[in-house]
Amino acid sequence: MLAEKIVKIRLKTLTKLITAVALGGVGLIFPQNSISQGQTFLLWDGETVGTVFHYGGPTVSAYAGSAAFEGIPDQWHEPGIGLNNLPTWRQDISNYDEIWFYAKADAPGKTFDFSIYGWPYFSKKINIDPYIVGGGGLTTSYKQIRIPITLLKTNEYPLDRVEIFYFGTANPPASNHKIYIDNVYAVRFNQAPPPPNPEPLPPPLPQPIPIPPLPPPQLIPQPPPTQVFTGQFQTIIKAPNSSSLTVNWPDQSEASEFRVYLGPEPSADNINGVLPNQVLVATLPAGTTSYTIAKLAAGVDVFTHIEAITPTGTKFSNSYNKTLGGPRSKLDTALREVHLAAPNIIELILENKSTGLNGLALIGNLGGLWQTGPWSIKRSDGADIAVAKIFRHSIPVSQPDYRVGFGLPYNENVVDVDHKIYLVLAEPIGQKEVLTITGPQNLIFILPFSDRYLETPAIQLNQVGYNPRASKRWAYVSGWLGDGGALKLADFPNMAHVLAESSNPLQTRQEVVRNLPITPRSILDADSGTQVKEINLSAVPASEDTAYRIHIPGVGVSWPTTISEKATREIFYTVARGLFHNRWAGDLKPSYTKWSRPQDHTTVFTAENTNLREFFPETTPKTGQRSLLGGYHDAGDFDQQLMHTVVPQALMRAFESNPAAFADNTLNIPESGNGIPDILDEALWGIAAWEQLQEADGGVRAGVESSRHPLGYYYAHQDQLQYWTYSTEPYHTARVAGLFAQAARLLAPYNSSRAEALKTRAIKAYFFSMAKGAPFNPSLLYAASELFALTRQLIYKSTFERVWSGMGVYGAFSNFSPYQFYLGDYFNNDRIMTDHLLGYLRQSSADAAI
User: Fold this and answer.
1) I need a surface site. Which of 28, 50, 96, 424 has the fewest CB within 10 A?
2) Which residue range(s) make up the domain with 263?
């Protein structure tokens, strides 16, 4: 379970893997954002929609095109261009030679230091003056800046992920000037960008170096699906694999012949049991009691019809089972899954195990071979369907050469790849068909296709289920075809239907809602990079016992979903339990989880370090040992960072939004049964870490860190790294003061003594922040807001209003995050979110103007 087995894989390696898989054969495969790894790589230009700007915004004063970035630096703040949610977010530019961009100022004599941020590191700051093409400093006309990437790199940050470009504080200070930036490139030598729209080119592939094969990884076993039959005699399908199944039946002594049929749907014929579009696959002699249907597609519903020819007539037996398939299934062939992505597009998912990464090449990568073909498609009547185009989207899915345990050897260059091959056909398949598909590597399989049974990835929905109390429920239609780009939806039907699952798979799925419109949502969705359509599911009735599938004729059905209270509870339980499984020092006993492990990281050492992005030297003294029982492991490692404050903050806000919905004894955590709602107990576990990291003067230390990130693959309790505390930090302390105050208010009805202790901590943290330099910082809004709600004292009301007015003409909305902070906000300390305001705004004495 991922909550238990924390995989330690460097982001740089995964980025290289994606690139290597993409370049592994005939045809260049781009990730979903359609960006290539060319010699000239456009990272950002002014026309990029959705850019997050820091201390500035868009302007029409562009180098090329219609827009650029206008930055407004001061002596404390740096203008920046954030790539959040853009195609180039976290792009790896470590193998490029130079970073190029175009810059000017609104007056001559200005300069700035350029740097790049990628969580959790900053690059070196480089002054641009020596790198201005033609020299002469910045002027009021655009000039090209060319900075060698090696100058920006640090030991910790090789520029393997790019999140924000920063353009320095005001230089000279307090000069009230503006800078303008356009067209940011990463460049390899010998290929200059023809602005404003360069055409990326693929890099050459390095020569491969053979890597010895490794044993296959351990697989998760899958039990066979439930098997049923109907008819005049019994048939049983035992333990199907991914490419075949064997039908068994008792001896039919009077039968002179048996006929075995295969079909894509169950029979609606109660007299003879004939399957729709059934195909004869075998004629067998008298005395036969079993038959193996081979060369089947993986992960598909298989309906069989067996006829026994007797002197008194034909007897039949129909049965059902499903071949194995899907992620991490044990496969007999390379085929993992098969779907329709559109009426005329077949998606094949083919596994490619234990390839070897060598630079940007994958040894043993079969992606190009699968894409090249040849592929052939035959209908059940023998007619060919021409393959017009073939696209590919290759994805690294596993690094199998890891052993579980601290310090054990591993080889991160061994990678399992899934190749998604898209066969674009010259004609639609129709609603029912039995296809024979032949491809490279001697792959041949039978696909029993029914658009009422075969799942399609083109439909996206909540696979656990929807809340029946929701007034709006949506499913979406979209797709990505790898190097074929976004799936075009023009040829899709404009109506969908809803089918109800039957407990007996030999009964046909019944329509419960017909003709739900498939309507446009976005011509080009910013998140998916594709056209998106939507289906309104509000007409689908809620049911605690029925699973539904959305059916698009000629394409397929969705994975099952429900509309039930049970599904809603399952979603909440799963998410909340994910936090429980990632507790720092959590004692995961077998009574609370099937994935138990001993307690981890119960103590840390006290140290001073104000650089909250730095590791500690291994030689840091192991002094001031202290208990730390609370908080959560970070993503992919075990440290605790200042942005972890958002976890209890979000839990408390959820509880406060509807306290009656949350009860004790709902999450099976150690605190269950103490009379406090479990969601509030989980929030208190997150807060406990900051209680133990608070010093006597009220300051709260900004987390704990080790000398490096963990390497390898192991459980939290096996970690042998040492951890030290960061120093106290006033802005972080202000946010924690808000946590303490909000928790004290919510906890008071359940545990007054703990609530009073948290109140005392909140007040001490507040005054520490005020004394140490945070009297006008936005972080103090949370502390003042919640302390005012807790105590009703005017000192906190006054502080809130003063900080609000100091943020700008629109108060906190002058620099507001409508959802959650991005990681850099916890270091920049210049933005605010809704949670930080509600304590104040809910008070009757709040300023009406705010």
Assistant:
1) 50
2) 228-322
